[in-house]
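Q: I'm writing up a methods section and want to include an example of the input and output format. Could you take the sequence below and give the corresponding predicted structure tokens, formatted cleanly so I can copy it straight into the document?
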Amino acid sequence: MSIRPWVIVEPPDGRGLRRVTIEGETVGSAWSPAELRRILGRHGYPEDMDLDDPASICWRGGDSRTWPDRAWRRRSITALMTAGLLMSMVFNAVIGWPDASGALTFAQRITGVLFVLSGVVLGVSAIAALDYWGRRQFRASGAIVLLGATIVLATDALLLLLWFEEREYTRYLLVFLPALPWSIWALCILVRQKSWKGIPRPKRFAVGVVATALLTAVSLAYSTMYQPAAAPMHFTLKAEFGKAWEDRNVAFVHVPLTLHMKNTGGIPVYVINDIYTVRGRGAAYSYGEEDLTTEWRNSVRKRGARDGEAELYVDQLTYTTISSGRFYDSGNSLDVGQEYVMKRVFQLPKGARYDTVSVALQISYMRKDRGRIDVDEFRSPHLSWNERERQHCPPAVCGEFLVYRGKVRHNNNLINVTRKPRYVTAVWAPEGRFISSISSFPFNFAGVGDYREERREMERYGAAGARADAEISVAELLRSAGV
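A: Here is the clean output for your methods example:
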């Protein structure tokens, strides 16, 4: 008969886990005598077996009372590590999914996909953490947890860097701010335990981590800086008067007006606000007794105006709004190469005391590769004279106009989670009030607000404007109508 014991309990490792072998074959590992009894019970040993019987069990590196495992510490680390990785998994998915599923540009979609994939890696890391602080049945579990903690540190450092640019409170701050010290704590533990030792080629693993980080950094830089700046913006706006015709039933002349807009640039846009205004100009004519500068100075003094229009034989200019309207509904988009044409007819009295008629077509827009407007909210106008509206202002004080307001989100969701919500506002009135703004503060009629922020946000979202003008003499219109 062999004198070799049937059961051998190996010395505890650094975590207090003792490997159990039966006849040279590893059958499990135990943290405590209770776990050892369960392992032996699965292999036919009695539950009340004497663990101190040297004929049955050989103890190496201690006896049946040598169990250095601190279960509370190990379980606490496992719980904190797993919870942090799972929370970061959800957070990265929340950041990446809007860009991965709905970003306009390919680079922004790639950035979103990278964040979603990093969330998948963090989920795998959470599972690996249970194994690494458990039985360690997979050799690479420690390296996977190390990769997950590195991703969390890199993501949170980037978010904190973006947050410092504005230092605004956002509910996401309650997630990524605590996650940063958590990632440092996790990395300290994993480095101290040399968790990468379980993988066959640790150098290749490190190179892969660095390459992934560099790819992510390049993609973020391209999507947030180079690509939005490189794509050009061009608009073609035209306003043309057609041939007028006389209405024999009334003393008016009907004047056709054609307005045309085309996106000739490389990026789709949202049209935030638009207006066309037809004005008639009246003037008192002189015979040029004075020079041009004197003529202009007198005109400015009499009208109280501050403009750059000067004519030698024309004085005392007055302008009357004849027609005004919307050209393109607020919040509608205009894709690359798309054009829009509108034809209108306005009426001009045959005896009108105007010498010329002019039209001004204005639009303000925002690049779709920089942001996305909540169109359903933005398209609903608010009446300034309605007392139940938040934008209410007495007509005697503010006049009467429409206010369009809606939330706008940046196409790079990293910016959305580090800043307060932004709102796009458009104000329109028939007499020519035409205001477009993007800011975090609510619209008000007192003119109170951080206009530096407003200008910065307009640039950040690529908001700009375009204008087209046309002018025709009333004499030419009447002649074309046969009057």
